[in-house]
Specification:
Blueprint (H helix, E strand, L loop, with lengths): L12 E3 L2 H11 L3 H7 L5 E7 L2 E10 L2 E10 L2 E9 L2 H14 L1
Length: 102
Amino acid sequence: MRSLDDIPQEEWAFEWDEAKRRTNLEKHGIDFPRATDALKGPRLDMHSERSGEMRTLAICPDTLRLIAVVFIMRGEICRIISARAAHENEQRKYRQIYDQRN
């Protein structure tokens, strides 16, 4: 499975469904371009299969909070599915790993 970590950050390319981006922004208050910036920081990736595709749930920092970004890799392209505030259990997992490193 291809990962964002397999591609140099300056070569990352993103795509998304524009209607889904607008719906996500209205529902969760997080725009997909902002989510792509958050992915550049330290993140905790969790993988699951859905509809025959491997999805990644990435917990990553966004200004003053942690967000959860769901995406799939299609070759060299990262397709953003959704972005929302991270749930408490996701925040705990993230902090268990990254707070210990600091």
